[in-house]
Design goal:
Organism: Eleginops maclovinus
Bound molecules: ligand ME8
CATH superfamily of the largest domain: HUPs
Family: Belongs to the class-I aminoacyl-tRNA synthetase family.
Keywords: Aminoacyl-tRNA synthetase, ATP-binding, Ligase, Nucleotide-binding, Protein biosynthesis
Shape: elongated
Number of strands: 20
Oligomer: single chain
Strand order of the largest sheet: 5-4-3-16-17-11
CATH architecture of the largest domain: 3-Layer(aba) Sandwich
Low-confidence stretches: 1-14, 21-48, 495-509
GO molecular function, one term: ATP binding
Largest sheet: 6 strands, parallel
EC number: 6.1.1.10
Length: 526
């Protein structure tokens, strides 16, 4: 059962108050599809000007289906991409899937499937989610694609030829879940579900194993001071500030050289090291290069590679803020403009993750709460600096209060035929808002006008620093203030003035004495 409480007069959209039972978005699938294809097509135009913008999400592992956390990164990137398009930028927006590595090899084995078939299947699920949720990506990359293999091999050869990769051996801790090497200080003791004592990553809580292998090493240690210099010279390169400081802190310590290959006997599912068929390229080196592949590396990346911005979750900050800049410096390529970091969605205080099995299905939730509703919720409630606990009830309450009641109510009040018979954008009534003194407007009304006037600049500022929730908060505050004005002026209680121009404000004297007194008392109280 759904209750339409308002109809937009000039568009096909309607806003519904959410009922506790699931319902489908009223926005027509056709409208949405058209919008998306316009957004996608915009960015395929090649342009040499300095108004190019390139935004990426992480590429997601295909060991399991997508969850709400993945959609969150994609919605932030989509939002910034759309914002740049509105500003007239030629924006490229890439997302996709990370399909190589031990973790995927093991997941395919466990499923009894050929790895590529397994990857294709899960990758399609991510794509389907993003298409269903209006993520207007312009490129969807899979690391199993030929173009990516070529880019990775080229990138490797550049690092090798410059002497930044050498043959060596690695002995230490490795977490397959995180596909990450760890130092002894990053490892702690734990007990698994069967009561066995195990070692885990202190950061992720995932199990680690001791490994000893002959492989290729990258001279990460040689890049510590250059990465530090880059960050000191670009204090907004990692945002928010909290994560910038975290990386600066990491850089106070020495960076050990990094193992960038695994023995083929252990890891077959990956790109072979050029010139050494016994070794497979480390999945993180492989994965990070996806950003270059999409940009057109190795031949045609110049337009996009100067203007790259990465959205990442805080779990993969180390890879993007230490390894990636070092790899790029080694290859003689420009560094990303910005790494926007966001925190995590938790459920019952625990990070939503495939391995913990506490994931929220984003497809099912966006059917329940509508796609726009879910997108709004994620952007409005997700705070980059700190984790956010997810509950359905929070979504329900937020959407009903801010979208249905506040925004919907305001629109209803402004567009109701009785108040706005001409169905136009209304002008202010001269008796209410003259420039001279002695008008009916009170100081709060002028504050509201001022807030609305400043809103575009405020929103822009917040978007630039990826504080989308603050932009939405500012918009919501204006909606509340404007609703307040309508409540004081009670246009719905009297006759609208100047029906030819659609002026909103009623004359006070048109109201009953009771209403006039109520209005005056309310004003006096304020
Ligand atoms: O790390 N809350 O892939 P991944 C918010 N393939 N965001 C979350 C989240 C949560 N609970 N869980 C995941 C990988 N994410 C690598 C990336 S990039 C070159 C390679 C989001 O499938 C967030 O963006 O584990 C996080 O960084 C990413 O998904 C990790 O996805």
């Amino acid at each position: 059962m759904r209750t339409p409480f308002l109809l937009f007069t000039r568009s096909c959209k309607a806003i519904y108050r959410l009922q506790r039972s699931p319902f489908f978005s009223p926005v027509s699938a056709l409208c949405r599809q058209q919008t998306i294809s316009v957004l996608r097509n915009t960015s395929t135009v090649s342009c040499e000007d300095d108004r190019s913008y390139y935004i990426t999400t992480p590429i997601f592992y295909v060991n399991a289906s997508p969850h709400l956390g993945h959609l969150y990164s994609a919605v932030i990137a989509d939002c910034l991409h759309r914002y740049k398009l509105l500003q007239g930028f030629n924006s490229k927006f890439a997302t996709g899937t990370d399909e190589h590595g031990l973790k995927i090899q093991q997941a395919a084995e466990a499923a009894g499937k050929d790895p590529l078939i397994f990857c294709t299947n899960v990758s399609e699920r991510f794509k389907h989610l993003f298409n269903s949720c209006d993520i207007s990506y312009t490129d969807y990359i899979r690391t199993t694609e030929q173009r990516h293999h070529q880019a990775v091999k080229h990138f490797w050869s550049v690092l090798w030829n410059k002497g930044f990769i050498y043959k060596g051996s690695y002995e230490g801790w490795y977490s397959t879940q995180d596909e990450s090497f760890l130092t002894a200080l990053q490892v702690g003791d734990a007990v698994d579900s069967s009561g066995n004592e195990i070692k885990v990553s202190l950061d992720s809580g995932h199990k680690v194993e001791w490994m000893k292998e002959e492989n290729y090493m990258f001279r990460l240690s040689a890049f510590r001071s250059q990465v530090l210099e880059w960050l000191k010279g670009n204090p907004r390169a990692i945002q928010p500030e909290l994560f910038y400081q975290t990386v600066l802190q990491w850089l106070q310590e020495d960076l050990p050289d990094l193992s960038v290959s695994r023995q083929r006997s252990r890891l077959q599912w990956g790109i072979p090291v050029p010139g050494d068929a016994d070794q497979t390229i480390y999945v993180w080196l492989d994965a990070l290069v996806n950003y270059l592949t999409v940009a057109g590396y190795p031949d045609k990346h110049n337009q996009w590679w100067n203007v790259a911005h990465h959205i990442v979750g805080k779990d993969i900050l180390k890879f993007h803020a230490l390894y990636w800049p070092a790899f790029l410096l080694g290859a003689g390529l420009p560094l990303p403009q910005t790494i926007y970091v966001h925190s995590h969605w938790t459920v019952g205080g625990k990070k939503m993750s495939k391995s913990l099995g506490n994931v929220v299905d984003p497809l099912e939730r966006s059917k329940k709460f509508t796609t726009d509703g879910m997108r709004y919720f994620l952007l409005r409630q997700g705070v980059p600096d700190s984790d956010c606990d997810y509950t359905d009830d929070k979504v329900f309450k937020l959407l009903n209060s801010e979208l249905a009641d506040s925004l919907g109510g305001l629109l209803n009040r402004c567009t109701a035929p009785a108040l706005n018979p001409a169905q136009v954008y209304t002008a202010f009534c001269p008796q209410s808002f003259p420039s001279e003194q002695g008008c009916r407007a009170v100081v709060e009304d002028y504050h509201m006008l001022d807030a609305v006037k400043k809103l575009p600049a405020v929103v822009e500022n917040h978007y630039e620093s990826m504080h989308v929730y603050k932009a939405l908060e500012a918009i919501s505050a204006c909606v509340r203030q404007t609703n307040g004005l309508v409540e004081w002026t009670v246009p719905f209680e009297g006759r609208a003035l100047g029906s030819d121009t659609g002026v909103l404000f009623t004359r006070l004297e048109n109201l009953s004495m009771d209403k006039q007194n109520l209005y005056k008392t309310k004003k006096a109280k304020k």
